[in-house]
Amino acid sequence: MTMAKPKAPRRTLESYSVKHMNKPIKAGDCVLMRPSEPSKPSYVARIEGIEADSRGANVKIHVRWYYRPEESLGGRRQFHGSKEVFLSDHFDVQSTDTIEAKCIVHSFKSYTKLDAVGNDDFFCRFEYNSSTGAFNPDRVAVYCKCEMPYNPDDLMVQCEGCSDWFHPACIDMTVEEAQRLDHFFCEGCSVEGQKQLQNAHSATRPSDTKVDTKRRRR
């Protein structure tokens, strides 16, 4: 009778240097991972832990996947940004060989404050339950006449009367016309607003989810 060979103990690593990357990875970092098919975009994941065998080889990473909108049960919708991802409840163990690069998953608020968006910049405003398709939070603020959540890829203009934000197309305006505006009053505020218009004030970014009148670079 032969005894089963005991499983070699594995140890947790504080950090690990991936061969083709200049920076080491550690728990809490976000990474781009090689997709199952070359035609698909890279997977986005957050590293939960790193472990190796007793010799420091055979390194594996424990990850929590981010889902892209098109990977969710509801699919991609109009208000989803091109760089939006959802933090899922899907955990996995992967080889470090599948890591392509490090990336940054910003909060929605910090993403909207970026001067420029790079290839490695993403944002997350929802957690996603992969089995039920439910989102947390299940409600977010909506804007404009169309009552849609904010998509940071879209240009919006703010009414100086009610402070709501509007898509140019929803107020019969082109993007070019919106970019040339010094002042804007929505239909409901226009008469009263024109009476009260004083000196132009500098545009300010909204404190929460409403964002400025410039389309951000992808």
Describe this structure in words.
One of its GO terms (molecular function) is histone H3K4me3 reader activity. The chain is mostly beta strands and 218 residues long. 7% of the residues lie in helices and 29% in strands. A hairpin with a 6-residue loop joins strand 5 and strand 6. The longest helix has 7 residues. The C terminus is likely disordered.
Q: Any chance you could write out the topology, listing elements then pairs?
A:
Blueprint: E1 10-12, E2 15-17, E3 24-26, E4 30-33, E5 43-53, E6 60-67, E7 86-95, E8 99-107, H1 108-111, E9 121-124, E10 127-128, E11 135-136, E12 157-158, E13 165-166, H2 175-179, H3 190-196
Parallel strand pairs: 7-10, 8-9
Antiparallel strand pairs: 1-5, 2-3, 4-5, 4-8, 5-6, 6-7, 10-11, 12-13
Helix proportion of residues, in percent? Answer: under 10%
In terms of DSSP E residues, the strand content is: 25-35%
Distance between the termini: 63 Å
> What is the tally of beta strands?
13
The rounded Rg comes to 23 Å
Q: Which structural class best describes the helix and strand composition?
A: mainly beta
Order of helices and strands: EEEEEEEEHEEEEEHH
Biggest β-sheet: count, sense, barrel? 9 strands, mixed
**Helical segment tally?**
3
| Unreliable runs | 198-218
Shape: elongated
The overall average pLDDT, rounded, is 85
Keywords: Metal-binding, Zinc, Zinc-finger
Domain PHD-type: 141-192
Domain BAH: 23-139
Organism: Pisum sativum (Garden pea)
